[in-house]
Specification:
CATH class: Mainly Alpha
Distance between the termini: 23 Å
CATH superfamily: NCX, central ion-binding region
Strand order of the largest sheet: 1-4
Shape: globular
Number of helices: 14
Oligomer: single chain
CATH architecture: Up-down Bundle
Number of domains: 1
Length: about 325
């Protein structure tokens, strides 16, 4: 029991270190991007979305390199489930989400296509180096799509992102050493926290006799999704629904295309057969549920947010 308590302690400590690392990285990166004249909407859709996914990137990469492929896959799929069901659901409960952004609406099919792409890529039981390259090329195409779509975005939505980034960057017009230090220290905390989480998660799984993919889908996934939760809840409370939804959708695309792409390029990832018949269908079902909810005048009401949270909890029970 002493060994289990130590592993649980490592897991909790790793999540805390990872959370602060992600917060500092996003804060420093947002300020630096803003001071360099990058569009606030580009910052919101890329720097913030990708920065909040940095914990998943570190944990899955460390897990894959350490031979813990199940933990790497479970973390990505579990984080995507949590992003849609838990984070978006809770954000809608805090304040109904009315999405106006054309970019966010166009990103939703991209999120679904990237998720579906995992079937043919992993049908042979492995995400190979070549599969990882394809995922990374998809990410590059997605970024090009986002930048091109910004030209047709409504002024009101652009203003929403500008206000959000201005609040994040404190209106600083110039590059400061403090921001560079935030990025550097945040990155260091992410790496350290990632290593500690993987060690703790593997130890807990072995002590309790549960699979690594199970603990990756639950504790690790929710822990690495805390930055997305914080960002989306703050955006929802400020009535910035486009940012709350865009953060979730952008993070889900990044989780699959970048995280599984980078991880499999560094070390091919074995894809258990049950992922294609249980975990991946659950993620697709929850993703598809988001379409009719948002199609109702592109607005997620509080009761619909409760449905998303309930669906997430039900998926967790079924998968475990």
């Amino acid at each position: 029991m002493t060994g289990l308590a130590f592993d649980v302690g490592m897991l909790v400590a790793g999540i805390l270190v990872l959370y602060f690392g992600a917060e500092w990285l996003v804060l420093g990166s947002s300020r630096l991007a803003g001071s360099l004249g990058v569009s606030p909407m580009v910052v919101g859709l890329t720097v913030v979305s990708f920065g909040t996914s940095a914990p998943e990137l570190v944990v899955s990469t460390v897990a894959a390199l350490g031979g813990n492929a199940d933990l790497a896959v479970g973390n990505v799929l579990g984080s995507n489930l949590a992003n849609i069901g838990l984070i978006l659901g809770l954000s809608a409960i805090v304040a109904p989400l009315s999405v106006r952004s054309r970019v966010v609406r166009r990103e939703m099919p991209v999120m679904l296509l990237v998720t579906l792409a995992l079937y043919p890529l992993s049908w042979d039981g492995e995400l190979s180096v070549g599969d990882g390259v394809l995922l990374l090329l998809a990410l590059v195409a997605y970024l090009g799509f986002v930048f091109q779509s910004l030209e047709t975005e409504a002024p009101a939505v652009l203003g929403e992102y500008e206000e959000f980034v201005r609040a994040t960057a404190d209106g600083r017009p110039s590059v400061r050493r403090k921001d560079v230090a935030l990025v550097a220290s945040g990155s260091a905390f992410l790496v350290a926290g990632g290593y500690v989480i993987v060690e703790g998660a593997v130890g807990v799984a072995e002590a309790l006799g549960i699979s690594q993919i199970a603990i990756g889908l639950t504790v690790v996934a929710v822990g690495t999704s805390l930055p997305e939760l914080a960002t989306s809840l703050v955006a929802a409370a400020r009535k910035e629904a486009d940012i709350a939804v865009g953060n979730v959708i952008g993070s889900n695309i990044f989780n699959i295309a970048a995280i599984l792409g980078i991880s499999s390029v560094l070390e091919p990832i074995a894809m258990p057969a049950h992922v294609l018949t249980r975990e991946l269908p659950a993620l697709l079902a929850l993703s598809l549920l988001l379409f009719p909810l948002l199609r109702t005048e592109w607005r997620v009401q509080r009761w619909e947010g409760a449905i998303l949270v309930g669906a997430y909890l039900m998926a967790g029970i079924i998968l475990l």
